[in-house]
Design brief:
Helices cover 40% and strands 30% of the residues. By secondary structure, the chain is of the alpha+beta class. It has a four-stranded mixed sheet. Strand 3 (89-104) and strand 4 form a beta hairpin. Helix 3 (45-59) crosses helix 4 (128-160). The radius of gyration is 21 Å and the shape is flat. The model has no long low-confidence stretch (mean pLDDT 85).
Amino acid sequence: MRARAAALLLALALPGCGLHPLYSGGSSGAVATMLTRVEVAPIAGKSGWLMSNALRDKLAANGEAPLYRLEVRLDDKIIGLGVRSDDSVSRERRTLRARYQLVELAKGTVVLDATAGSDAGIDVVNSEYATIAAENTALENLSAIVADQIVSRVALYAEHAPASEP
């Protein structure tokens, strides 16, 4: 009985805490609609190509004229961490950091300026091919993770931004 009363009390208290769905309204909601109106500026390099594709997949442009441009600069590093007795590296850390700006095209102003990033550990094995494959896989995974962070932050901006006219 106490458990039911506690659950009922909790259910009644939740609406008062200010939590609400970010994507309310589904694909026709304000946030989802704004995300489809963001174009991704070209990003240099292999990591840029992966990031551009991940961002475009998540933003899902609908063919309408963009209202915003997302400009991203990446910093991709691999650092050796572990050292074997023969002075060869046994472990690497791949770090992908992104500095991004959301530019409102009508005014040419930067409305969001932030950073995102993540890192991954890589075992360096005797096979150079396997190590390179692990580094590439880490870059693909990091690109998806950082793209998720960027889109989430842009969605938060969209939730609080004043409605823009096309």
